[in-house]
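Re: the request from the purification team.
They wanted to know what the chain is likely to look like in 3D before they choose a buffer screen. I agreed to run a prediction and write the result into the notebook, where they can find it.
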Amino acid sequence: MNELETNKNMGNNDMDKNDINKSNAYTNNINCNKLHSLNKNIIDSIYSDGFPVAQYGLYMKRAKPYRTFKIPVDAGFSCPNKDGTLDNKGCIFCPKMGRPISVKYCNTKYSLKEQIEKQIEKQKSKGIEKFYIYFYPGTNTYGAPTKLKELWDFALSYSDVIGLSIGTRPDCLNEDVLNILENYVKNGYEIWIDLGIQTMHQKTLELLNRKHDVSDTVNAIMQCKKRGIFVCGHVILGLPNESWNDMMETARILGVLEIDALKIYPLVVVENTELEEMYWKGEYKTLDEKQYIKLVCDFLEHLSPYVLIQRVSKDKTPDEIKISPEWKLHRLKILNEVSNELKRRNTKQGVYFKK
């Protein structure tokens, strides 16, 4: 990952051809549920007004007659890659003792009721009118469907809650769970799955110890789309051994699959991870800020113009556990840098996208 420019024409971690063919086959045969879908005219208007990125925030301001906010809650879910079901080590970038969350009331020391009500009260004082409940830490579909429905029903029982956002893994969306979520969609709620994709390359998934396949990601996206459930994928740039071509191929495939939104992150080295061990051994080097901004711009240029961008960085990693990179991750700052670079290039999201 030290020589991104020289790797531009290399395929040192090429995606398996079967995975590419499978992705295209799924897309060619898709029968999307039209109960809920993004409004492409609104996205077009964002570009017409001179914005080079299909920003989620801009879209929501134009699509909704009220201000909205995601309330993050911690319902205490574990992960099959940490509890021994798949493995007990977790992914190489995930802290051994769990993931630190910096939002005060997103914490299991408070009841779900307290987490929701405390945060709604705070945000209403700022003029926010409607809310999504974001089940965030852990794998939030990893449990008995009856228990999941109980939690989700409770979250949706608040009159100002208009939907859910549920963080999970691609291999933890079974038929029973999807059917519950589809029923919410049919009842008028907006349901999002925040899907931990990271990459569309099998070799990288194995290196990361993700314990799921590319095919799981493809299937999860397609099954959600059939049911009118929105999908926001989480993608990491700067993963070990991935070339420029690999990352641009991830962008292209997710565009072809018509994923609804993405959160794009740099790979961050934190304490108590296998990645930290690799970092101190000199086996991995993080991107510097200029490299990352350039990569995000390249990635967006190769992505479909109709994928909403929820984030292009993360700012929730506490400094006391962050090892690298040393530059500030603040997402709004990075978004401004990315937008300015795209304007400097006289390009925008999707300019090089080809199905």
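For the purification team: The CA atoms of residues 12 and 120 lie 48 Å apart.
Please add any questions underneath this entry.
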